[in-house]
Amino acid sequence: MTTADNATAALVPVGGTTIELFDQGSGPTILLLHGAGGLKAGAPFLRALSAKARVVAPSHPGFGKSPLPDWISSIDDLAYLYLDLLEQLDLHDVTLVGMSMGGWTAAEIAIKNSERLARLVLADPVGIKPSGREVRDIPDIWALDDAELAKLMQHDPANGPNYATMSDEDLSVLARNREAAALYLWEPYMHNPQLLRRLHRIKKPTLFIRGASDGLVSAAYVRAYSEAISGSRIVTIERAGHSPANEQPEKFVETVLGFMGE
User: Fold this and answer.
1) Is 17 within 8 Å of 10 (Cβ atoms)?
2) What is the DSSP secondary structure assignment for residue 15, as one 8-state letter?
3) Fewest Cβ atoms nearer than 10 Å: which of 134, 173, 213, 222?
């Protein structure tokens, strides 16, 4: 483990592959699953969470420095990989926090085996198809240019990536993350057709967090998700888009830690 102010990553073998794993802080355990933008160890919300808890945060295969074996190609694969990780690290009473595609992955984990979980936090998750075949529940992010995507994803579009200030290494990671995201999210687009009808299997306390300005995941979409999990509830964070953890880190951390303390 590392301290919150000195976060480093190790390449850890798990489930027949290797993943980049951040493991920082001490206290109750959070397994944090990032969204399609990848994971930055120095993100303010990660530092704040790891000041109060042990945060175990992998980079999904194909993201960051995690290799992408040819047998991993779906969110279902990620779910089983992280079940292996929970067992390998012998983690118990875990707060599973998933953001966007990480939220989808967290839901898939919980419907399979929640033995090691204490609770779930799903922040602006994708993964379900509540509407009919002819209705697009989630906008096609690959059909938009960067400016349109920033307006969709951010409360303040200026919070999106600034390519001019990024290093070559960071740009390479960004390109790799986007390629991996397309692999996991494209077909079927951002959902598992079976997931919605399986969510009733989740019996752990579940909190949904949504950024009020999220143009990707609507309030109705999150409500449909929440209604499928008995006893779950929704917290909306103002002045935040699709990633409230990054746009409103203090409020996000306060909400997660408050839920953990209930």
Assistant:
1) no
2) T
3) 134
The C-alpha atoms of residue 215 and residue 49 are separated, in whole angstroms, by 26
Percent of the chain scoring above 70 in pLDDT: 97
Using DSSP, state whether 52 is helix, strand or coil. Answer: coil
pLDDT of residue 164: 87
pLDDT in tens, 183-201: 999 999 999 999 999 999 9
Residue 129 structure tokens: 């198809």
Residue 133 tokens, joined:
């075949």
Find out whether 58 and 85 touch, Cβ atoms under 8 Å. yes
Q: Which residue has the tokens 């969709």?
A: 152
* The pLDDT value given to residue 95: 98
CATH 3.30.420.130 fits 9-260, yes or no: no
The Cα 51–Cα 27 span in angstroms is 9
DSSP states along 74-105 = SHHHHHHHHHHHHHHTT--SEEEEEETHHHHH
52: pLDDT strictly greater than 90: yes
N- to C-terminal Cα distance for the chain?
A: 26
Q: What is the pTM of this model?
A: 0.95
Q: DSSP label at 8?
A: -
Number of Cβ within 10 Å of residue 29's Cβ equals: 21
At position 241, the amino acid (one-letter code) is G
- Cα–Cα distance between 81 and 58 in angstroms, integer? 11
**Quick one: DSSP state of residue 191?**
B
